[in-house]
Amino acid sequence: MSKNPVLESISPKFGSSLKVLNFLGATNEHAPTWHFHPEMEIAYINGGSGKRHIGNHISYYNDGDLIFIGANLPHFGFTDSLTGNKSEVVIQVKEDFLGPDFFSAPEMHKIKQLLKRSKQGIVFHESVREVVGPQIEALLELSNFEQLLAFLKILQQLSETEDYTLLNVEKVVLESKPQDAQRMDTVFSFVSKEFTRPISLAEIADKVSMTEQAFSRYFRKKNGKTFTQFVNEYRLVHASKLLSEQHLSITDVCYASGFNNFSHFNKSFKAFTGKSPSKYRDAFKNVLES
């Protein structure tokens, strides 16, 4: 089993309801750990590119990110030694940090809906990130009281925009028990290291001391997809990263991402992204050059 902690214990600084962390570069120690916490979390990544793995969703971000993760929704960290980001500011706070009924006030209706959406994981698009990101960074310089007021204003802005994407669109809310998170940490950590080779159901089931049949049922119940679907999605996200960053041939990308059949890779990639690998790479070049 993984030795990494799976339940993150969060203690705000003295005199504050919020915990605001500033990770410079690749210093977020939770990045490789499948973890969760009772607090909701907003993460602003300034620059860089990497993977989002939140609930049963996996995707890839470019040029920074702004993410809202609801309470108890399992996730990996978003920055590591390869993401190339300038910094990452993380805000962690309990949903009832202003009391159990505060967000029931009529003035708080939109924010209450935002908190409900966050249970699925939200990524805000570039137009929102460019405005709100600097405000999140500015929290680091404020007093406790000013920080609280500024945070409420940030929540209000996020609640009013429609420029976002819900990540777990099937509304599979993964509010995990500690033992579930530890088991998933083992599975996801193993896949992240071994996805470039075939992984049999027998092998992964053995890692968590389950039969193949029991593991298959368990994984699908917890993630809303089969283990094979999950591994293929992980490989496709990695392929999109290689296509956008590396000067590899598409054939090399196919095999470097763990696929052993080029035709199957092409078909799967197009179904996953809506574009063939070559058109995906061309579209990405056009974005960078525009």
UniProtKB/TrEMBL annotation:
Top-level lineage group: Bacteria
InterPro entries linked: Homeodomain-like_sf, HTH_AraC, HTH_AraC-typ_CS, RmlC-like_jellyroll, RmlC_Cupin_sf, Tscrpt_reg_AraC-type_HTH
Positions of the HTH araC/xylS-type domain: 185-283
Signal sequence residues: none
Keyword tags: DNA-binding, Transcription, Transcription regulation
Gene3D superfamilies reported for this sequence: Homeodomain-like, Jelly Rolls
Protein name: AraC family transcriptional regulator
